[in-house]
Design brief:
Helix content is 43%, strand content 18%. The chain has 11 helices and 11 strands. The strands form 2 sheets. Strands 3-2-1-4-5-10-11 form a 7-stranded mixed sheet, with helices on both faces. It has a 4-stranded parallel sheet with strand order 7-8-6-9, with helices on both faces. Helix 5 packs across helix 6. The N and C termini lie far apart (58 Å). Bound molecules: adenosine-5'-triphosphate (ATP). The site of adenosine-5'-triphosphate has 19 residues, from helix 4.
C-alpha cells in the first residue's frame, strides 16, 4: 500500500479534524502518501482530491468542523455513483480509503468494500448511535455544549420558578439526552428507546412542585418528538409556566474536548494500522476503553442500544 485517501461525510462533529490529523500523520510516519477528498462522497465522485502533507493538518487539532468539509450525496447511494467514486480513486492511484462519519457514511463505506475497494470506517457523529463502539467522535463535546447551555438556563429557571423543556439532538438515539440529562440533574429525561407517558411526566412535576422545587428541567431527545409540543401540553395540563429551548446546531460546533481529541487520535491511527495489516471493510471503535475493529457489515446489522442502567439511575437520582 502506497497511497490512502481520507474523507469526512454526513453531519460534521467536533474532533473530526483531530481524526484527519491522526490518519495523515500516522500514514506519513509509515511512508504512505495521503490524499484528502473534499466534500465527502460528492467530492469523491467529482475528483475533488488533493495530496496532504504533514503541514496540511497543522493547527487543526483544536478546531471543530472538518477541514475536508462534508456533504450529502444521493447519487453515491447508487451503484453507478459508487463505481464513479472508485474510478476517481484509481485515477489518483489511491489504494485504500478511510471514511470518517456516521451510520449513513458507513453504509457508503460498506458499498465500496462490497465493490472490492479497501475501506475503513471511523465513527464520527455527535449522536453516539453507531453500533460497535461505546463512543463516537464528537459526542463528548456535544454533551459539554449541552450542559453548558442547561447550566445557564437553570439559573434563570430558578429565578422565575419555571419549568424548562430542552430539546437536544441525537436523531433516533437518546444518548445525548440521557448523558446530558444525568450530568445536569434533569428531573425528567425523554428518550426514544424508552418511550414515555405524559401522566408520569406530570406526576413527577407535581411531586417536585409540592416539595417546593424552584425549577424543573425536562430533557427531550429529538427522536421523541417536538420539544415545543411537549412544553405546550405540560403548560396546558399542569398549569405551570413552561418554556422551551431547542438547542439545535450549536451542539455540532465548538472546539473538541480533550476526550474527543484523544479518542479521534486513537481511532484515526487505528484505522491506518488496520490498512497496514491488509484489513478492509472494517470499522474502528472503542469498547471498554480498548480499541477494537468489526466488520462494517456486522456492526451495521446490530442495533444501537442505550445504557438501560444509566436510564434507571437517572430516574432514581431525580426523585
Ligand atoms: P450523521 O448521522 O452524523 O448525520 P451520517 O453519516 O449518518 O452522519 P448521512 O447523511 O446518513 O449522514 O450519510 C452521509 C452520506 O453517506 C450520504 O449523503 C450518502 O452519500 C452516503 N450514504 C448513505 N447511505 C448510503 C447507502 N445506503 N449506500 C451508499 N451510500 C450511502
Amino acid at each position: 500500500m502506497k497511497r490512502i485517501g481520507i474523507l469526512t461525510s454526513g453531519g460534521d462533529s467536533p474532533g473530526m479534524n483531530a481524526a484527519i490529523r491522526a490518519v495523515v500523520r500516522k500514514a506519513i510516519y509509515h511512508d504512505i502518501e495521503v490524499f484528502g477528498i473534499y466534500y465527502g462522497y460528492h467530492g469523491l465522485m467529482n475528483g475533488n482530491i488533493e495530496k496532504l502533507e504533514i503541514g496540511s493538518v497543522g493547527d487543526i487539532i483544536h478546531r471543530g468542523g472538518t477541514m475536508l468539509y462534508s456533504a450529502r450525496s444521493e447519487e453515491f447511494k447508487t451503484s453507478e455513483g459508487q463505481k464513479k467514486g472508485i474510478e476517481q480513486l484509481e485515477k489518483f492511484g489511491i489504494d485504500a480509503l478511510v471514511v470518517i462519519g456516521g451510520d449513513g457514511s458507513f453504509q457508503g463505506a460498506k458499498k465500496l468494500a462490497e465493490h472490492g475497494y479497501p475501506t475503513i470506517g471511523v465513527p464520527g457523529t455527535i449522536d453516539n448511535d453507531i453500533p460497535g463502539t461505546d463512543f463516537t467522535i464528537g459526542f463528548d463535546t456535544a454533551l459539554n455544549t449541552v450542559i453548558d447551555a442547561v447550566d445557564k438556563i437553570r439559573d434563570t429557571a430558578t429565578s422565575h420558578e419555571r419549568t424548562y423543556v430542552i430539546e437536544v439532538m441525537g436523531r433516533d438515539a437518546g444518548d445525548i439526552a440521557l448523558w446530558a440529562g444525568l450530568a445536569d440533574g434533569a428531573e425528567t429525561i425523554l428518550i426514544p428507546e424508552e418511550g414515555y407517558s405524559m401522566e408520569d411526566v406530570l406526576a413527577r412535576l407535581k411531586r417536585g412542585h409540592d416539595r417546593g422545587k424552584k425549577h424543573s428541567i425536562i430533557m427531550v431527545a429529538e427522536g421523541v418528538g417536538s420539544g415545543v409540543e411537549i412544553a405546550k401540553e405540560i403548560q396546558e395540563r399542569a398549569n405551570l409556566e413552561t418554556r422551551v429551548t431547542v438547542l439545535g446546531h450549536i451542539q455540532r460546533g465548538g472546539s473538541p474536548t480533550a476526550s474527543d481529541r484523544v479518542l479521534a487520535s486513537r481511532l484515526g491511527a487505528k484505522a491506518v494500522e488496520l490498512l497496514l495489516n491488509g484489513e478492509a471493510g472494517k470499522m474502528v471503535g472503542i469498547e471498554k476503553n480498548e480499541l477494537v475493529s468489526h466488520d462494517i457489515d456486522e456492526a451495521l446489522a446490530r442495533e444501537h442500544v442505550v445504557d438501560k442502567d444509566m436510564y434507571n439511575l437517572s430516574k432514581e437520582l431525580s426523585i
